[in-house]
Target: Methionyl-tRNA formyltransferase
Amino acid sequence: MKIIFAGTPEFAAVALADLHQAGHEIVLVLTQPDRPAGRGMQLHASSVKQFALAHGIEVLQPLSLRMDSADPRRAAEARAAHARLAGTDYDLMVVAAYGLILPASTLALRPCINIHGSLLPRWRGAAPIHRAIEAGDRETGVTIMQMDEGLDTGPMLLAESVAIGAHETTGQLHDRLAALGGRLLVAALRRMEHGTLAAQPQPEAGVSYASKVGKQEAALDFSRDAALLARKVRAFNPFPGAHAQVGGVALKVWGAEALAAGSAAAPGQVLAADPVHGIVVACGGGTLRLTELQKPGGKRLPAAEFLKGFPLEDRRFD
Model:
């Protein structure tokens, strides 16, 4: 099939690579404009752009696809992009974590399908992997869906579930779902070509929305239940990274586990900080053992190693 691919991060690049490997003709790639990244804040190409350039695929990076944008520059770029799409010979647009809204004018050109990192209608929206872990879901998966003007509301073509590991982080689950998404996409296109794939409407029950993750959410509030905090640590690893303040120092918390035993101590009080018991903190419900931490400018370290350079005994998290 002749495909226009729209995507930006590594999740999308995995699917693009699988499409390319399967022999589909990628006639054009849409991806977000280069963004500043790293300590030097130099412009950095997206994972999708890097793959496309390495394989000689044309790349288009409009700021917007909305021709009715109030911003003249964005509207002009959108008009140019629309003209380019309309003048391209292709069968299908595949979208994966693109990051820009596809307006009705784009959706009307050719069929568009999307790779979504959840079992729809569970976790429509921007951050389905983070929210599934944060909510304590036992399973998630990937849905291949037809796109419409709604937010992940289109009919479903193919879906496959996976169990979420008890200690799995967003980074780890992301990689598994990215691999699944690429494989499922290729399978869906094969069945579309053979006429054996029928779309099914999404169930009306069970809809939830995975809002974009904000950095302010990553602050650990020890007045909350320890089980919730442990899920937040996993959900926000690697981005934006859970953190907590002690003595005015912001520590990143990369690993934690909830303990059933409660404590009469005030939330945030360090109950233990030694190589034997680890770092145990009182919470509003239960206690939380911190297993991997990082101080500003330092490395991520297991709790026992971290304590050698940053003692926490008898201290309290702010």
User: Anything to note?
Assistant: The chain has a mean pLDDT of 96.
